[in-house]
Amino acid sequence: MIDCENGELRDLLPDYLHDRLDASTRTLVERHVAECSPCQDELALLRDLRGTLHRAPRIDVAAVAAAIPAYRPAARTRWASGWRIAAAIGAIVVGGAALTFLGRGGTPAQIARAPITAPATRVPDVGGPTSPASAPRVAQQPTPTPEPAVAPAPPAVKSAPAPKGEELAMAGGTIADLSDGELSDLIGDLESLDAVPSADVESTESFLTGRHRGRHD
Amino acid sequence: MPDVALPTDERTDLDLIARWKAGEQRAATLLVERHAHAVARFVASIGARDDVEEVVQDTFVRAFASLDGFRGESSLRTWLFTIARRLLLDRRRAAKRRGEQVEVQEGDAATEYDPLDGVVADETQHRLRSALEKLSPTQREVFVLRVSEGMSYAEIADTVGTTEGAARVHYHNAMRTIKELLDD
After folding, report:
1. What is the mean pLDDT of residues B23-42?
2. Which of A45, A53, A67 lies closest to B57 in CB terms?
3. How does pLDDT run across A36-69, given as a tens digit for each residue?
4. Within a domain: B112
5. Facing residue for B68 by CB, picked from A56, A67, A74
6. Which CATH number covers residue B162?
7. Is A196 in the B-facing interface, judged by CB distances under 8 Å?
């Protein structure tokens, strides 16, 4: 059996056999094969070889398919953990602000209305020079409600003493200073915050549909 | 060099993958039905013996577990062949570590699993098989992918971890060997 000298075209015979050529190339191959005896022989040999190789071992395709598990996306876990971290940071900030306010004698109702301020450790010294841009917004903004208990709150933040050691977060008081009633109110308010997501990733969907809707029905 | 047309079923594979990811388990079954026999032919041709179905099943389980990493840059079938080939090589290495006899005898791939063995007394078939048995493992692997599966040299290179040029050389050497053996 001799080989065709047109190696480039001969190389296309398996593609021709498997119908993987575009129309123009296919026509080119067909015209060549019609006039080339070695390519006719090789094409016939390729057909026989394909037939031989296609005698495959029998396998139970249904059993193979049954072993395929349902799809489980992998990316969602990363998204969920990042969201949890952000929510936890948010909860710490809100909780810290609430504790700070209570340490100044505020009530839970005032906490809900009062703006969230920066931690007391970052408030500039009252006596020092402050530019309008750097001055704390809390001190300059008029209180939107006429209640006297809210208006004095910002100056109280500005005059907070320098924090020490483990009392940094409390900014003027520890949790031990709270009465049982104040502590109970604080815990109740923190529990009522909707900003903290469940740790259970799967419950997010039910939160948006059934469970959350049920709470308001 | 003329263009080689893309297989017509690649879009269907991607559609089925999307449907499976959307929760349609039937789409996975359709994908297995489309490719399982080809994978079985391939692993048998490169030396799988009694464990063809096991290798095929492992191939699909692994492929579906990592379909998020499949970008469609190669055809799904090429990707499956690549996984199957690696699985088979891992099994051979593991068997070798256990001290088992794992040398693939020439001819195992082409003859061992044909259910018609001993039944079909076709002289042409026997001659062709004998010729295929004489190929080196690499030649046979490349030749099977080219002739039986119709893969391009680029796809073969991806599957067996070589270059297009080397795949072309292996194919033509295999074809020359087979012709010489048939002429004897």
Report:
1. 93
2. A67
3. 999 999 999 999 999 888 876 888 999 999 999 8
4. no
5. A74
6. 1.10.10.10
7. no
Instruction: Give domain status of residue B56, yes or no.
Output: yes
Last residue of a domain, one of B44, B73, B104: B104
Q: Which residue has the tokens 């065709």?
A: A4
CB proximity A17 to B under 8 Å: yes
B contacts of A3 (beta carbons < 8 Å): 176, 179
How does pLDDT run across B134-147, given as a tens digit for each residue? Answer: 899 899 999 999 99
Give yes or no for a contact between A49 and B147, defined as CB atoms under 8 angstroms apart: yes
Give which of A17, A18, A25, A42 to mutate to test B binding, by max B Cβ within 10 Å.
Answer: A18
In chain A, the residue whose alpha carbon lies closest to the alpha carbon of B41 is A56
Enumerate the domain spans of chain A: 7-53, 89-102+147-162+169-190
The whole-number average pLDDT for the span A199-215 is 39
Residues spanned by the domain of B29: 1-104
Among the partner-chain residues B5, B148, B175, the one whose CB lies closest to the CB of A53 is B148
Across the A:B interface, residue pairs with CB atoms under 8 Å apart total 133
Report chain A residues whose CB lies below 8 A from the CB of B110: 52-53
Residue B109 inside a domain? The answer is no
Give me the residue label for tokens 């500005």.
A158
Place of tokens 């006899």: B101
Mark whether B21 and B73 lie in a shared domain.
yes
Q: In the structure encoding, which two tokens stand for residue A214, read together?
A: 């049920």
Q: How many residues make up chain A in this entry?
A: 217
A64/B60 CB distance under 8 A: yes
More confident position, B115 or A96:
A96
Q: How far is A142 from chain B (nearest CA, A)?
A: 54
Instruction: For residue B147, give Cα distances in angstroms to A15, A137, B56, B110.
Output: 9, 77, 21, 13
pLDDT number for residue B94: 87
Whole-number pLDDT of residue A75: 56
Structure ipTM over 0.90, yes or no: no
- The pLDDT, as a whole number, for residue B6 is 47
pLDDT of residue A73: 77
Of B104, B133, B168, which residue is a domain's last? B104
Q: Domain for residue B110, yes or no?
A: no
User: Do B126 and B158 belong to one domain?
Assistant: yes
Residue type, B26: R
- Average pLDDT over chain B reads 83
| DSSP per-residue string spanning A2-54 | PPPS-HHHHTTHHHHHTT-B-HHHHHHHHHHHHH-HHHHHHHHHHHHHHHHHT
